[in-house]
Write a structure and sequence with these properties.
- With about 375 residues, the chain is an alpha/beta fold.
- Helix content is about 30%, strand content about 25%.
- It contains twelve helices and 16 strands.
- The longest helix has 15 residues.
- The protein is elongated and about 70 Å long.
Amino acid sequence: MAGNDQAHMARALELARKGIYSTHPNPRVGCVIVRDGQVVGEGWHVRAGEPHAEVHALRQAGELARGATAYVTLEPCSHHGRTPPCADALVAAGVGRVVAAMQDPNPQVAGNGLKRLADAGIAVQSGVLEAEARALNAGFIKRMEQGLPFVRVKLAMSLDGRTAMASGESQWITGPEARAAVQRLRARASVVLTGADTVLTDAARLTVRPDELGLDPELSALAVSRPPLRVLVDGRRRVPASAPFFQAGPALVVTVTDSAPYPGHELLALPGTDGRVDLRRLLLELASRGANEVLVEAGPRLAGAFARAGLVDEYQIFIAAKFLGSSARPLLDWPLERMTEAQELKIVEMRAVGDDWRVIAVPRPAA
């Protein structure tokens, strides 16, 4: 049974990944219902406010759900939100067993869903492919457990570790395949965050461009239906209202002083020091708005500030096969004097993306 449990949960996770671009602020969840060894129902959560994965799967299974096993990538919810509790739906359908990949970190659930099922006489199990399930919803889990979003910093550099010429020119270091990968990172994020330097130098818009996503039509439509919140960190209000960034749609501008707003955009004042925004306070604010994943696409100064503050959960570094030279700008503005100060990273993935390479790395905790 263990092998079958893993196989069916793997399918549930595959379904859950279909919601990677659209479920914000909810977690990505998939469900598979199996009776007598045959899959009789499948479903996945598409977007907030719509039926959860279990409901879709139960509708497909119909009467065949009675006595069946339901495989769910996250503990079924037990509370009334914008939709009724999924635990109650499973009980009403008469399923005989529920296997969850992991317990829901949401304090409103946190084991209550599994308890509701067990109290109804349904056999329950949790922990099947839990690591994969946690990785899929790392942002939701962190927001529930720590009140902070998962911060992913995207960087593009040459082989000699440079991100732009001394003039600031940086378009384009990497090729079209790498840029498509970045578009997908934007599409999955709750927030895309940048700084004044990037907006001023690159005329950046930080939008999701459907023609560059490289997705099938269904996923592409979902990706553009829920664009991420674009956030500009501009402590000194250096970016003019005429910048292309502001012409690309509503944005949140974060400054250190409460001053005149930008028409059509939200202004958030977060007092900091030396004209610099308090980044941790900003992340707490974004989490309070439901942000699960924040993608930082910024120059060495702002990206370095996140790194120095210990606020980065993951780096995605795209490496181009070219040299920019010793006068070009560094990857991060992070002056370190001794080897003992170096930030150690664990590389979790490295693969070719077109003519470039992508390295995914996470900070190792200090010893």
